[in-house]
User: Which sequence fits this backbone?
């Protein structure tokens, strides 16, 4: 006995899940940038002090240096 295989077309094609988007906001100026990666976008600075961490956009690098020293 032979069984024929068939491909059944569906009305709703399979849609891959959406890629997660990560949002990064500058601590100083509020600039926001979206990225598909959980890592800070290129040129952004993550500054740490004893109490917290801060994220700064490329325009606020001096602010990042001051945040760490205070």
Assistant:
């Amino acid at each position: 006995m032979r069984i024929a295989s068939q491909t059944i077309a569906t009305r709703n094609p399979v849609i891959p899940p959406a890629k997660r988007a990560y949002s990064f906001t500058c601590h100083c100026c509020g600039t926001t940038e979206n990225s598909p990666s959980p890592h800070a976008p290129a040129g952004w600075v993550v500054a740490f002090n004893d109490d917290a961490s801060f994220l700064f956009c490329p325009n606020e690098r001096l602010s990042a240096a001051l945040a760490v020293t205070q």
